[in-house]
Structure prediction request, 304 residues.
Amino acid sequence: MRRNRRLLVRAVLVLTLAGIITVYAYTFLENTRPLTPTRATYVVLPHPDDEWQVWSQLEDTPDEYKIIVLMTRGEETAYCDERWSEECEQKRLDSFVTFFSGMSKRDHSIPGHLSYIGSKGPFPTLGYDPHTELTREDDGVVHPANLSADVWVDRLNRGALVVWDFGDGDLTPEEVTWAIKTTQDNREVLGVNPEPEDDRLIASYANTDFADCFIYDHPDHVAVRDAVYAAESGFSARLGATCASDPEASVTAQVSDASVQQAFGAGEAFKQAYGWLSPYELATEGQSKLFMRSQSFWVRVEGD
Prediction:
């Protein structure tokens, strides 16, 4: 009788262990399975750490290949030991890559298995007035802009990070327009999957007028907003993060509980990536802080 009980216990343990192994194996396979997105969404950000401002439009979108177009390295932050230095730029970029990697652990549609494939370019400034020069300014000193991009590509075909270098704090709409068009027209040269068709173009948060939301009139954010708002056709829709009170705001979306927890809760993705910068407070209701769960957008469709 005792022997039969021991055999029964062993059988139950074996079946339980087999079930656990099966679940973990399935989860592993799902999390390492390449995706086959059909549409390309371009997200234009001024600085590393601005990505959360549009996260409601990025999460849980396996059919979208996400091309994150970063305009500066964020090198002007006072939290670096030496502003405008290569060390500061690298630290900001390391944080940028780390955040996407951390968020992809929860959301399989986020590019997070990233490989650096090098600097691509330089690219020409075709289509510009010959008297217009693309530049960057560091501590009052103006330099010609670097017209090459550093590129990270997701190994599971979920997207890419295309990082330009137009100078933190002195970004212009003309520079943003050039970067969008150059990225759009040169995906194969950049090493970015050229197959998904261009779909949406999304700008980070800017709010210069509506006091019931977080006011953010940083010139780099305004430059991104203005360039995306006026972008030429070729995208089915253009969106810009804004205040819910903005008369042009037509979409408001909530970031999911799962993403909030992964970024600001137990997952600690934001702390691990950006904890060395200023403390980040999340507005779980309303839009009183730069980092908000409720995210509103103006939308312009092709032809507007």
